[in-house]
Amino acid sequence: MINFNTMGELIAMAEEKELPIHEIVIAREMHVSQRPRAAIIELMQQNWAVMQASIKRGIKNTEHSVSGLTGGDSKKLFAGKEKGYLGTQALAAAAYAVGISEVNAVMGRIVACPTAGSCGIVPAALYAAREERKLSDEVIIKALFTAAGIGMVVDQNASIAGAEGGCQAECGTAAGMAAGALVELAGGTPSMVGNACALSIKNLLGLVCDPVAGLVEVPCVKRNGFAVVEAMLAADMTLAGIRSVIPVDEVIDAMNRIGKSLPKSLRETSEGGLATTPTAKAVERRIYPDS
Amino acid sequence: MHGVFDIVGPVMIGPSSSHTAGAVRLGLMARKILGEPAVKAEINLHGSFAQTYRGHGTDKALIAGILGFSPEDERIRDALMLAQQQGLDFSFQTVNLEGAHPNTAVIYLVGATGRVARVRGASVGGGNILITNIDGYSVELTGQYPALITIHRDRPGVITQVTQILSRYEVNIAFMRVSRQNRGETAMMIMELDDQPADEVMEECREVYEVENAFTIPAI
Fold first, then answer.
1. Rounded to two decimals, what is the model's pTM?
2. What total of structural domains would you count in chain A?
3. Which of A24, B26, B84, B201 is buried most deeply by CB count within 10 Å?
């Protein structure tokens, strides 16, 4: 059967069979779930449809979350995307990512990717690429399998839960997934996919999970916007021929070790970092007056 | 290793897989255990659930589940209003339960015909749940498999009789647990199965002399 536990194994398998990474991921899923290829593609199509709906809703969103901390920022960013320093595609991607996260915060429908807190990054990167390069949904759906394969390896060898590994495990993993998927979409080889993933995760190592008032809002919503731009840069660096000195599996191992050495106060407990600033404490008292 | 759709997925209503999606599933399990629409719900919240339930919509999510909504139903955000419209009387209290998982809820439901159920469970991460107590009996139920539950007299041979019925209908038991309050009194047996048992299976289980009641909870 087709199986992989590391990015190295996934890349080697793809190169040996002269297949893109998504084909290896799809083949493994067919074997493990005992479902035909069409059924698996169909499920991913459904996820992509929900992702697109959340983007369209996000960039128009003016509703604030129950806490009042987030809402309406995606719309502002999207409106100003022609005038910024970053360029239209990157700003649109950031607006999509913030928008999906705002939809999440107002109890809208999203796809966890790999988690709800990091749900904006992968869909935003792929949607922006599709718009800019006029790609088909079919191609994007394949790229989602590549992203999934990367996430599966990180989940296996480190963690994708903020409570275990801090935000590097959530937004860091999502950025690595997005960077790898973007490189594959641009025609990069499997080892280039791994390289983009390494560059992207490396830059977010050590990121802590310290949400204000315990909510998936501050800093999470805007961070999704930052992380998608970072993933795009990792993809562009790779496509320009820049190599990560540390190979991707060693980066993932470093992420695992860093996650284990993060204190509990910086792993989704809201007992440290931003969550214990005077402003955050005041927000907490306003939202939860009785506790 | 997890599958593709554990990483890209599930489709869910935000903002939090543990505080929202998992909470819907807890409510849904309580509703399935009650076995009929609820007219009254008293919910106790412990730990992180107690601290952050308003900001995460955990209250809306639990009520949505009790109303029978799935974790991806966009009506979850309006669940409190919909509950009032549908005549479900609900209340929330925060409590401190010694040693309980930080995301624990105790849900007491009264059904339309007067049936009651008290269900304790926790949202254990990624939208997954663990029901740990039903009506005073210790259980371990994830909702990932259909379950068969019997309430029976604590006598030798009851387990054999029930499992023989399952064997005859070729229903495979994945996980099983028996608990009781006192020796020789009422006991509870919970079996998580690979397939949903047919009505005939349930009827035969109810015909076992010592079995006071047998019911199934579908996977959610």
1. 0.89
2. 1
3. B26
